[in-house]
UniProtKB/TrEMBL annotation:
It comes from Sinanodonta woodiana (Chinese pond mussel). Gene3D superfamilies: Rhodopsin 7-helix transmembrane proteins. The keyword Membrane applies. One of its GO terms (molecular function) is G protein-coupled receptor activity. Keywords: Cell membrane, G-protein coupled receptor, Membrane, Receptor, Transducer, Transmembrane, Transmembrane helix. CDD domains: 7tm_classA_rhodopsin-like. This is G-protein coupled receptors family 1 profile domain-containing protein. It is a multi-pass membrane protein. One of its GO terms (cellular component) is plasma membrane. It is found in: Cell membrane. SUPFAM superfamilies: Family A G protein-coupled receptor-like (SSF81321). Its main location: membrane. Residues 7-294 form the G-protein coupled receptors family 1 profile domain. Belongs to the G-protein coupled receptor 1 family.
């Protein structure tokens, strides 16, 4: 929880005030806002649920589960939009691009989308029976256990998860292929230029304009640097997406088994019973993982963190 709060506060501050206005900056800020909200609200509720398992208030249970699903939907939607925006930026350079205002509207829409698709949680979760006692365990309510509603909603969640994951994987695969094709074309051009230069006479070489050669070199370097930055940014955002989807796989696996084959869950060994709660909360990794990824793969973010730390130490 502490790592999520501190890390996402750093992301919000640095990307808000130290980066130029652009689409990926705004997307990262929105993701950090979701993760910070999860660290401030989602994790404390889950801790209370673990400590007060059988005394958890029904209303608090509903709010806790609702917020966790809402933040998950918002993050997944934003990650999918990031992949599409990167695809347009790198693979469709001559086509219509996503504007900054459009990126903002998509982020707003992700919140609205998350609010509506998470609403069933407010009705499905609540009081449930444990053996012969009726206690306030935060799970699907007893009246819905034998209905198709929990399974239907979980199937919807899994299908949405699969669609989002396939979309992201397909777009980043296309991005990688485009970048590799671009690099291969650049290498061919360089080799062709070297061959032509070797065939030019000394008189022709002497007559060339040094200013024109310098200009071409500068333009070539700028294009090369731009391609490298685009590749590094795409790589960083892909890792963020991969961590997000991987963190939800244990959760969906255990949840589906619990709904479709509840007898299996009752016959688990003590070790397996200890692992199950970790799987059900595996998605909490998202709340603190992204700042770590930015720290390793974004040189500017790492430098700004170092500068901020130095200023804090100097003031002390």
């Amino acid at each position: 929880m502490t790592a999520g709060i501190l890390g996402n506060c750093l992301v919000l501050y640095i990307f808000k005030f130290k980066y130029k206005q652009c689409n990926h900056r705004y997307f990262i800020i929105c993701l950090a806002a979701c993760d910070l909200t999860g660290s401030l609200i989602g994790i404390p509720f889950l801790i209370a649920d673990m400590i007060l398992t059988y005394f958890f208030d029904t209303t608090v249970c509903k709010i806790s589960r609702y917020f966790n699903h809402l933040l998950g939907f918002c993050s997944a939607f934003i990650i999918m939009i990031i992949a599409i925006e990167r695809y347009l930026k790198i693979c469709k350079t001559n086509g219509k691009q996503m504007s900054y205002n459009m990126a903002r509207r998509w982020c707003y829409f992700s919140i609205i989308f998350g609010i509506f698709v998470s609403l069933p949680i407010a009705f499905l979760y609540g009081k449930t029976d444990i053996h012969i006692l009726t206690v306030l365990k935060c799970h699907y309510q007893e009246k819905y256990k034998d209905t198709f509603f929990p399974l239907m909603y979980q199937v919807f969640l899994v299908l949405w998860f699969i669609v989002a994951m396939i979309t992201v994987c397909a777009t980043y695969t296309h991005i990688v292929c485009t970048i590799r094709a671009h690099n291969a074309a650049q290498n061919i051009i360089c080799q062709y230029t070297r061959v032509n230069n070797s065939l030019v006479s000394s008189e022709d070489v002497a007559s060339r304009s040094s200013h024109l050669a310098l200009t071409r070199t500068v333009i070539s370097n700028r294009k090369s640097n731009s391609a490298i930055k685009a590749y590094r940014l795409a790589k960083m955002l892909f890792i963020v997406a991969a961590l997000f989807f991987c963190s939800y796989i244990p959760y969906f696996g255990v949840t589906l088994v619990n709904i479709t084959k509840p007898n299996v869950m009752r016959s688990l060994s003590p070790v397996e019973m200890a692992v199950i709660p970790l799987c059900l909360r595996s998605y909490l990794i998202n709340y603190f993982a992204n700042p770590i990824v930015y720290g390793f793969l974004d040189g500017k973010f790492r430098a700004e963190c170092q500068n901020l730390l130095n200023r804090v130490i100097i003031r002390r």
